[in-house]
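Feature request, filed as a ticket because there's no other form

It would be nice if the structure record came with a short human-readable summary line next to the tokens. Right now we just get the raw output. Example of a typical job, pasted below so the devs can see what we mean:
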Amino acid sequence: MNSLLHFVSTIRWQDIVDITLSSYILFRLYVLFRGTNVFRVLVGMAFLWFFHRIAAYLGLIVTSWAIQGITAVAALIIIVVFRNEIRSVLQAKNLGTILWGFSHKTGSSPIEIIVESVYELARRRIGALIVFPGKEDLEEVVQSGIRWRGLVSKEMIMSIFWHDNPVHDGAAIIQGNQVVEVGVILPLSNRKDLPSYYGTRHRAAAGLAEATDALVIVVSEERGNVVVAKGSDVSVINRKEELAQILEEHVGVTAAEWGHLRKEKFRLGIAALGSIVFITGVWFSFTRGLETLTTFEIPVEYMNRDPGMEILDTSVNAVRLHLSGSGTLIKSMRPEQVRVRLDLSKAVVGSNTFNITPENIALPPGVFVKKVEPPVLEVTLDIPIKKELPIQIDWVGRLPEHLILVGAKLDPEKIEVIGGTRQLENISTIYTQKVPVDNIKKTGTMTVNLALHPASLKVASGSKDRITVQYVAKERHFSDH
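Raw output as currently delivered:
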């Protein structure tokens, strides 16, 4: 579980965008080319790539090389052999259809065209009367129709009911995707409960709806509203969605067509899911399968140390990290992007041992730790105190034979240092850096630095870290004996 969470945490937002965009492109290729020979060849190439990755993983060098060559040739075949088919698919579609449209639409009645046309007529205050037959025959009820047999389109419906058209006062009968009859006279209703402002069109719609199982749409020329009559129900429909639903229930989508529609949506859903799975596999193959290794030397940072304690010593100051990841990520990495941090919030006085785990290492997403050297780090902590200690000169070398060092005076003679309690318990003297006496020729003055051991010791504020030494050297007197 921890490994899975660590893997998820290493995914970059660029990886999400990469997978999403590539999956959508693959899905659009499916939508545009499904059912064509190009699509079948693309599927074959996908299988070739899949087998190529398996062969590469198993170390089958010759097989992998052969499949890679076949895939390259197949790409050329698609471009050369199927160029006319590709051109015909792309030329037949506009940019919007290529990017997000769907070429295959279902349904025997163009519901959307009819709904848009009806509300456009209402907006322009053009009266209209449109009949959608049910199962009953209308020939015994309607009169004086003119055979039309034209495919439904917005332009056709608008022209039929244009006020200069001789048949605009009659009804139009639509069956399936065709306008089958125009200029039709409908029987008028004798109902007394209809509103007084309903004219001939509304009474004709109510009359046909009462006599048959047809559905009739009326567009009012005076009020610009849309009325639907079916059976004894006559109601105003203000929303396009509601009218579309009424038409679908009446003639728009049959049970078989609904099944085909559901099957089509299911296919598209499977294609979208397959595109995501395939692209994710490709991404994983390239970012995890083709790993590149690198090594960085990273200094250790110590966090959350108790202010009352000081770090006296560490086993190492930097760790060596062996990292892996895709070649692109590894090549673009810089040491500043990697950090190693140790939490000292639970550390105690004395020696503390820490295991360096992935949680202690901050890496760019997509990069993984293969090995840490050393994997264990020791940190010694202590409570700092001040202590005044005498200073001792660390003379080295050999004086010239004719000289003798009589004495030396230090300024200051003592110094106050800061260090851990345990350290300072065992220290009684602070030495200077080594002072060679080989070059001393006479009495003089020199300035020397302190040699603080261990290095964690510090000179307290107010104390000098450089010592002035006044030394006295005299000539050696040799006796005759």
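Something like this underneath would help us a lot:
The two ends are 92 Å apart (CA to CA).
The domain at 384-475 is CATH 2.170.120.40 (RNA Polymerase Alpha Subunit; Chain A, domain 2).
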